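General statements about sequence and structure are easier to judge against a single worked case. When preparing material for the folding task, we compiled for one chain both its residues and its backbone structure tokens. The amino acid sequence and the backbone structure tokens for this protein are reproduced below:
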Amino acid sequence: MPVFYSPVPENLQLGLSYMGGSVFTNNRTADSDFSREQEDANVVNELVSHLPLQMMLYFNMFYFPCWWFSAVFMLEVKFYYLPGYYQALLITGMILLTVIEVVRLYLGYIGNLKEKVPELAAFWLLSFLFQLPVLLFFVTDEGIIILPLERAVHSLYLLFLFAEILASFLALRTMTRKLTLLFHLRQFGKVQSFHHAGMSPVYGLPYHRSVLPVSPAHDMYN
């Protein structure tokens, strides 16, 4: 059943509210103007890196070698009892999981810590479209002779994967909201009021960071 969304995104509605308040309302006091600017500055400077996701990536990085050695050992134990097509499938699945996992963890770290949406989106896609189907095959297909140790390590790995998919989805939603708000604040000219010492010359972000691909301020305004 199709799901219908409002044609105006929530972040755009928020940006339009800011614009309406600054353009069409002239009776705000200086105190209320200052409070509004402080609220906007808090949104702009908020760090949206997802702590639970970062913790899961950290523990996953240490768990993956244990899972890999256990899976390879179990594969060697049962290898000659499997039909030829299952042998090929398991070897291919192990190679894919190993290569993709290294790339996936790297993208997750970079995307979450540096608040980069493309990298985090690639992490989510690799987790959902590649790792999850292969792991489900390892856990559910009884034709591959699932051993008790194998079922335990695969199930724990699957829990990590489900949690990371959910956490990365929430992190992506938060980051895209911030990017959308920053875009509309820039369009409405409000971001320039957030400049102060220690902030980036582009968007007032600490540590000289900007989440939007824009040129330096002196190129923008000269």
In short: Helices lie at 10-23, 30-45, 51-78, 84-113, 117-140, 148-187, 217-221. Residues 1-8, 16-34, 193-222 have pLDDT under 50 and may be disordered. Residues 148-187 form the longest helix (40 residues). The two ends are 52 Å apart (CA to CA).
